[in-house]
Amino acid sequence: MGMSDENLVPDDAIRPGLEFVYAAHAQLAAPIQIGDTPDGTRRIIPILSGSIEGPRIRGQILGGGSDWQVRRPDGVTVADATYGIQTDDGAVIQIRNRGLRHGPADVMARLMAGDIVDPKSYYFRTVPEFMAPLGRYTWLNENIFICSGARYSDSIRLWVWRIV
């Protein structure tokens, strides 16, 4: 039994939407190079500090986290960052943020060299997963989120949305 074209695209009642959650800015240390491995070139990016600000959550990014990256042979960088935030009201929340960054070779070379590059010229999307204490921030544990990012020489900016 086949589906008609009208059944392929969901109507607005079931189409996911987006709700803005927060913007983040983090300071990063210089990359620690692991080097070439069987699955690509690996490096660790230590996360030093930062802040988040949104309509329902505000706080500081705790130092001690890091992004364990691999640049695959196809040029795609796979990000896998784990870090913590402390909200302005004292809650500590763990975040694991995994995703992909890629773009035209010349744009990515400029980005790796530390140049300021328009984030619209490359793809940088992640899926943050939150481990929040029960209570005021339980909603972080119960939803799926997506993130757009921008990378700079010693910092990163992230914008997070809840999929509704």
From TrEMBL:
Entry-linked InterPro entries: UPF0311
HAMAP family from the UniProt entry: UPF0311 (MF_00775)
Entry's family note: Belongs to the UPF0311 family.
Protein's name according to its UniProt entry: UPF0311 protein F4U95_01930
